[in-house]
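Second attempt. The first submission of Peptidase S54 rhomboid domain-containing protein had a stray character pasted in from the spreadsheet, which I only caught after the job came back as garbage. Lesson logged: always re-copy from the clean sequence file. Corrected sequence (230 aa) follows.
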Amino acid sequence: MAFVGVLWLVTGVEWATKSDFGFLGILPRRIEGAIGIFTGPLIHGSASHLFSNTLPLVILGIGLFYIYDRIAFEVFAWIYVSSGFWVWLSAREAYHIGSSGLVYGMVTFLFMVGLLRRDPKSIAVAMIVFLLYGGMIYGLIPGNGDVSWESHLFGALSGVFCAFYYHRYKTRNRVTKVVAALGPHVEPPLSRHNHTLPGGLEMRYVYRKSEEKEKDRRKPSDGPEESGIK
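This time the job returned cleanly.
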């Protein structure tokens, strides 16, 4: 996932220049801290902090962008911006950094949207996410002062909102085309019928008529028409 590469690039620059980019985090209710809504998720306080977010972002990103490809970017952007905004508006006055809010947002989105859509593919992804990351619920509880539980909370809420808003959108559109030819000669299609199966699979039936059958249908009768009166 490209976003993970950006995280490592930013951290690499920080290490190479021996700088501290913590000032680019979200500083709640300060105008100068609002830039952190966009830059805060890119900054991590340590290598362990970055490592702890890298694998979940890759796994969840694959689930989001492969299964829900049509809406994935919108969901990702919404979680990114909305969680940061609410942290800026209501969190403790400290610099909030890291992409764990995104992780929580994608976890709750993938889990909730699976329950709402109820198709086998979405449910399977939801169950996998629950088994892998169900224990993250404890990160929503205020405790360790060095952990931004507010980012976790607002990321999770943003994911739930996106699940309710987007769960009716179609996912990847796979088309299976079935052509029924009624004879040896194929003419342009005369009729089409589309049918969408569960899971977004679209079956497209295209019916064609052969030239010979069409001529037979139009050929006038050679014999005299019989009267209905004898």
